[in-house]
Structure formats: C-alpha cells, structure tokens
Amino acid sequence: MTVTTPQSEIDQINGTLHGENIEFLRFDVAFNVAWCIAQYHDPDLLKQMPDWVGDMVREICQVYLEHGHYRIVSNLGEVDHTPMVAELTRILGITAAPQT
Fold this sequence. Notes:
Blueprint: H1 7-17, H2 22-40, H3 51-67, E1 71-74, E2 77-80, H4 82-92
Antiparallel strand pairs: 1-2
Helix pairs in contact: 1-2, 2-3, 2-4, 3-4
C-alpha cells in the first residue's frame, strides 16, 4: 500500500473521524477523502478509513454516474464538483451503477 496523500491531510481527516460530532460530519469526512483520492491519485487512502467512508465515497461516484454530474447545494449556493468526482470515479475504476 502506497499512500501519497500528505500526512497533514490524513491527520485532519483522522481528527474529524475521532471528534465528538462525527455523526454530523460523516459526509464531510467522506468528501474530504474523495477529494484527497482525486487530488493525490491515492486510492489506497480508503484502506486507512472505516468501511462507512468507503461506502460513502463509492456512493458519491454512483450519483455522478447516474446523473452525469455532481453538485453540492448549500446555504452558500451551488458548487459543481463534476471534474473532481469524474477523476475520483476513474481512479477507483467505478464504471457503472450497481444493479438493484
């Protein structure tokens, strides 16, 4: 396993993972991990995370595959994360939504 994400990023993620309010920050952790995987081309980072993080990261990819884009809407407005999630999906080798 070769993790290329800087230790400072991993420390920040781990700090949130072990914080008091993790139940409210689960998406934030998963999205931060997704960003690191895309930014640093580091799929091995998932191996250091709890299973639920990987599940949420794969769900982000599935939403992108189903809709062709990935946007986050908040009280600050809408942000298009499509290029990052497209790269994430490519790096993780996710090519199709699971059949249900």
